[in-house]
Specification:
Strand content: under 5%
GO molecular function, one term: transmembrane transporter activity
Main location: membrane
Shape: globular
Subcellular location: Cell inner membrane
Number of strands: 0
Distance between the termini: 23 Å
Order of helices and strands: HHHHHHH
Mean pLDDT: 92
Organism: Paracoccus homiensis
Number of domains: 1
Keywords: Cell inner membrane, Cell membrane, Membrane, Transmembrane, Transmembrane helix, Transport
Length: 181
C-alpha cells in the first residue's frame, strides 16, 4: 500500500480517541451507505415503471426519502467518530499543540452537552410521534396514499442518534483529557 493510499484509508476510519465505540460506528456505517444505494435502485426502478410501463408505484418516493434520511442522521455520528465535524480552523490550526488539546476537550464537552440537549428535545418530539393521547402506541404516519410510519421511525432514529452522538463526544472529551490516542 502506498503512502497516499494509507492516508486515504486513515481519513476514512474512526480516530483513536473515538475509542471502541467510534470503531463500532465506523463499521456500522456501511448499512446507511447501502441504504443510499438501495434508494438509487428504487428510483431507477420507479423511472422505468413510470415512463416505460406507465405504472408508477405509491411507495418509491417516500422510501427513498426515508433511506436517505437515515444516512443523513447517521452521518453526524460518523463525522464525530472520524473527527470530520465542522471546526473553525482559521484559529484552531494556528494553536500550539497543548492549547489545541484544551480546545479539543472543551469543544467535545460542549458538543456532548448540546447533543444530549437535542436528544432530550427529540424525545419530546418522539412522545408526540409515537404515542396517542390515550397512551396507546401508534407511530406517526406520512398521511399519503401509502401512509407508512416513516415520520415516526425517523424521529425515533434521530433521538437515538443524538443520544449516541452525545456519548461519542463524551468519549472524545475524556480521551482528549487523558491524552490517549
Amino acid at each position: 500500500m502506498t503512502d497516499e493510499e494509507e492516508v486515504v484509508r486513515e481519513e476514512h476510519t474512526a480516530i483513536p480517541e473515538a475509542g471502541a465505540f467510534g470503531r463500532l460506528v465506523d463499521r456500522v456505517a456501511i448499512l446507511p451507505a447501502m441504504g443510499i444505494v438501495a434508494a438509487m435502485a428504487i428510483l431507477i426502478q420507479e423511472v422505468v415503471l413510470r415512463y416505460v410501463f406507465a405504472a408508477p408505484t405509491i411507495w418509491a418516493h417516500e422510501t427513498t426519502v426515508f433511506l436517505c434520511a437515515i444516512a443523513f442522521i447517521f452521518g453526524g455520528l460518523l463525522c464525530a467518530s472520524r473527527d470530520r465535524h465542522i471546526r473553525v480552523v482559521l484559529v484552531y490550526d494556528y494553536l500550539p499543540a497543548g492549547l489545541r488539546r484544551v480546545f479539543d476537550i472543551v469543544i467535545s464537552a460542549v458538543c456532548a452537552l448540546s447533543s444530549a440537549a437535542f436528544a432530550w428535545a427529540a424525545w419530546l418530539m418522539v412522545q408526540r410521534a409515537a404515542w396517542r393521547p390515550d397512551g396507546s402506541f401508534h407511530l406517526e404516519t406520512s398521511g399519503s396514499a401509502w401512509n407508512p410510519a416513516y415520520p415516526g421511525l425517523l424521529k425515533i432514529l434521530l433521538m437515538v442518534a443524538l443520544g449516541l452522538l452525545a456519548i461519542q463526544f463524551l468519549i472524545l472529551a475524556i480521551n482528549y483529557a487523558k491524552g490517549r490516542r
